[in-house]
Specification:
Layout (H helix, E strand, L loop, with lengths): L1 H44 L3 H5 L1 H4 L18 H13 L5 H14 L4 H10 L3 H27 L9 H8 L4 H13 L2 H5 L6 H18 L7 H6 L13 H12 L1 H8 L4 H12 L7 H10 L3 H14 L5 H14 L5 H5 L12 E3 L2 E4 L2 H13 L26 E2 L3 H16 L11
Antiparallel strand pairs: 1-2, 2-3
Helix pairs in contact: 4-5, 6-7, 13-14, 16-18, 17-18, 18-20, 20-21
């Protein structure tokens, strides 16, 4: 019995040792497994050195784009190998080898751009760098040409500033797209500055650049349509102040064949008239007479009327001809809300220094006479009915200044006309001033 008990105790100690050993073995196995699992996870989430250096794995789904917005194309492995070999040949001592490499890379086209640009950054040899730079420029020019062709074919192509300029022009046609391309080529800062996210300062700088460009060529050629629009587009920003040089250049545009062509162009006339309307409101008093004449030529109804009202009300000391032109503009575009301002000139005796001869003989033209004519035109009264014998309304100017006036030796005719117009005005209720006056 004692032996049996001793045997059992020995067996229990052996079993306990075995269990302990088994438990220890399991713990070691789990610990090792956890370390392996941790290492596997780390290997799966951490790129290797080769992977981190592979440029293809660093690219996103949207490829690096060119300055003109066209996407670069990823070359096939075979193409890449050929591109690499050809780029090496650009530094070859043999002239024909270099020329053939350059020609073949140009034929490959867009897929070679990325590698060429990378090589341009690391090449130290100036001759090789110049060859690569020229090749990159040629490839980009080719892309721009393709993009331009697609744009002019009315395809949906993204150009910086096109969306904003199209909205200003109120039209998307071949004519307006061709104009935009000319703007991009001749005045690139202007389309770029018209993007909504850019600032008044950007547009002011773009306008100054456009002015400098037009001034540099004004002795060699007439301004182009692109010049004409480039000088006005930045002014659609109400905070851009117009330099005096811009005012003079636009007057030159309007008086040369460029202005004549724009007036005849059914596509460009409406948007350019709208831009001129904004320009006209910023013009200086020194050029007021010319501005009014072009405003009437271009049928700039609202800008001409507002500017004429301002001139008559606030600048009575300007030249006789400037006030005469403002009264002509009123005769064309004025309404009854302008009558009060015009009536302040009815008794103004300032006269033209130029003698005129009409059906009445030699006449004297005073500002008051022109005010009578302007009021008559606004009210729809025939000019003959207010004393201007044989005078008809002029469709472009309202009236011709040289035809308006009274004989020097018959002041009673002027007095009678003045009395008649004042009587007419007394029968008309004074309208409330319109917003903006």
């Amino acid at each position: 019995m004692p032996n049996s008990i001793a045997s059992i105790r020995a067996l229990n100690r052996s079993s306990a040792s075995a269990v302990l050993l088994l438990w220890l073995a399991c713990f070691l196995w789990l610990a090792c497994s956890g370390q392996v699992l941790s290492q596997d996870t780390k290997d799966a989430t951490t790129p290797t050195a080769n992977t981190a250096q592979d440029p293809n794995t660093q690219q996103t789904s949207s490829q690096q784009t060119l300055a003109d917005g066209a996407d670069e194309t990823t070359p096939t492995p075979e193409q890449q190998a050929k591109i690499n070999a050809l780029i090496e040949q650009l530094a070859a001592p043999n002239f024909l080898l270099r020329e053939n490499a350059s020609s073949e890379l140009f034929q490959i086209g867009v897929p070679a751009l990325r590698s060429l640009r990378k090589q341009l950054q690391v090449t130290t040899d100036q001759d090789t760098k110049s060859r690569i730079s020229e090749l990159v420029d040629r490839l980009i020019d080719g892309l721009i040409e393709v993009k331009t062709e697609d744009f002019l074919a009315m395809k949906d192509v993204n150009f910086e500033g096109w969306a904003e300029i199209k909205n200003i022009l109120k039209e998307d046609s071949f004519t307006t797209r061709q104009l935009f391309i000319n703007l991009v080529q001749d005045h690139p800062a202007v389309p770029e500055s018209m993007q909504w996210q850019l600032t008044t300062r950007d547009r002011s700088i773009a306008l100054e650049k456009a002015i400098a460009t037009v001034q540099a060529t004004q002795n060699r050629r007439f301004p182009t349509n692109a010049d004409a629009f480039a000088l006005l587009l930045p002014l659609t920003d109400p905070n851009v102040k117009m330099p005096s040089a811009c005012e003079l250049l636009i007057l030159r545009v309007l008086q040369c064949e460029t202005g004549t062509g724009l007036r005849k162009n059914t596509r460009l006339f409406p948007p350019y008239s709208m831009l001129l309307d904004k320009w006209m409101r910023q013009t200086s008093i020194e050029n007021r007479e010319k501005v009014f004449l072009y405003g009437m030529d271009w049928n700039l109804r609202e800008a001409s009327r507002l500017l004429a009202h301002d001139t008559i009300a606030n600048h009575k000391n300007v030249s006789f001809h400037a006030l005469a032109a403002s009264l002509q503009a009123m005769a064309r575009f004025g309404n009854q809300s302008d009558l009060l301002a015009i009536s302040t000139l009815l008794s103004n005796p300032r006269s033209s220094t130029e003698a005129s001869f009409t059906a009445q003989g030699r006449i004297e033209t005073q500002l008051g006479d022109l005010a009578i004519a302007s009021i008559a035109c606004i009210l729809g009264v025939d000019l003959e009915d207010v004393g201007f014998k044989g005078v008809k309304r002029d469709p472009k100017r309202g009236f011709l200044t040289a035809e308006i006036g009274f004989p020097e030796k018959a002041p009673e005719k002027r007095a009678a006309a003045l009395k008649m117009v004042k009587a007419i005005l007394d029968t008309i209720p004074t309208p409330a001033p319109r917003f903006g006056q």
